């Protein structure tokens, strides 16, 4: 196999074609066409001309999303060997495998924008790209697996459903696939919590404790309030994002309140009340100091998550090398120059 | 970083017999056999397919979005290729 095959794949299916207009006048023409396509709700595809900032924003967002999927495998995998039954163990393994799959769909989408997989992983490992802060909290008990499914995946779904209509085609298509699969994640978490809530007093207390710990970090998953969100306005104009952070957060709270009642569990917010006038639930203030602190790297598990991720990558290096050596040997043996 | 990035493959899945393969996405794999196995694990975890094709992404030749107007134009000015172009008297059946 030719060495070139091991480098970041070049394919005419993704290569930006109209990316270098001859002069400023041409750029203006391209930009007008791009704006018109976005305004008409058409999808932008990999080879289309797009503003550099649009491309950069997408790479940042899709990469962060992909990183979140694969880092998110860690807190849940923590409980696979200690799952209370074979049924729960099989479910949890399938869920963690799905998270790996979601990461791969998203890395592929990011690659259509001209950023290689190795570069993306390197940026994660060196802290130059982020992942969702929610995964910097520890999973202390088995009930946390349920709380993650119900609340964390629930918040993710609320965020992700509108992304299925994102203006960038490959990202939107990855989100459609992911959203179909997330529904099982949320339901298994809810069922797990329900079993605990209806179990012994100790099991019920464990479920309540998990919900108490995961509720506020889940609300933070929607990002800072609209007036402090640096990327929101531009992303909405580009139709990458369809609803504001606060709008999605409110939607999530309204969905969760009756679900918590059916679970027989409470949400840890004394200010949570139905506001007849607004037609929504009011809820208490979010501790954004905690959010920014965890984002900066001072959460309970930031260090552990990245160390584990790096170790997994480094310890897997020999497998990747062996697979390449095997492929090279066999293509040489057949005398076939493989793509 | 050692350069062991595996090549990119495009994956096409036939969802059931009687339908053609459609593009599902892409993945990295060191060779065709592992690309097939990875594609099975990645794109058919819930019975989404009965057959998979994998193609090295680098062998794809794509039309240019820049030239899409001139490239596809020849078909636009030939309305007589469509059945609705023709006027047939009322009452003529099976036509």
Automatic annotation (TrEMBL), chain A:
<dbReference type="InterPro" id="IPR052703">
    <property type="entry name" value="Aromatic_CoA_ox/epox"/>
</dbReference>
<feature type="compositionally biased region" description="Polar residues">
    <location>
        <begin position="1"/>
        <end position="11"/>
    </location>
</feature>
<dbReference type="InterPro" id="IPR012347">
    <property type="entry name" value="Ferritin-like"/>
</dbReference>
<dbReference type="GO" id="GO:0010124">
    <property type="term" value="P:phenylacetate catabolic process"/>
</dbReference>
<feature type="region of interest" description="Disordered">
    <location>
        <begin position="1"/>
        <end position="27"/>
    </location>
</feature>
<protein>
    <submittedName>
        <fullName>Phenylacetate-CoA oxygenase</fullName>
    </submittedName>
</protein>
<dbReference type="GO" id="GO:0097266">
    <property type="term" value="F:phenylacetyl-CoA 1,2-epoxidase activity"/>
</dbReference>
<dbReference type="Pfam" id="PF05138">
    <property type="entry name" value="PaaA_PaaC"/>
</dbReference>
<feature type="compositionally biased region" description="Low complexity">
    <location>
        <begin position="15"/>
        <end position="27"/>
    </location>
</feature>
<dbReference type="GO" id="GO:0005829">
    <property type="term" value="C:cytosol"/>
</dbReference>
<dbReference type="InterPro" id="IPR007814">
    <property type="entry name" value="PaaA_PaaC"/>
</dbReference>
<dbReference type="InterPro" id="IPR011881">
    <property type="entry name" value="PaaA"/>
</dbReference>
<dbReference type="InterPro" id="IPR009078">
    <property type="entry name" value="Ferritin-like_SF"/>
</dbReference>
TrEMBL record, chain B:
<protein>
    <submittedName>
        <fullName>Phenylacetate-CoA oxygenase</fullName>
    </submittedName>
</protein>
<dbReference type="Pfam" id="PF06243">
    <property type="entry name" value="PaaB"/>
</dbReference>
<dbReference type="InterPro" id="IPR038693">
    <property type="entry name" value="PaaB_sf"/>
</dbReference>
<dbReference type="InterPro" id="IPR009359">
    <property type="entry name" value="PaaB"/>
</dbReference>
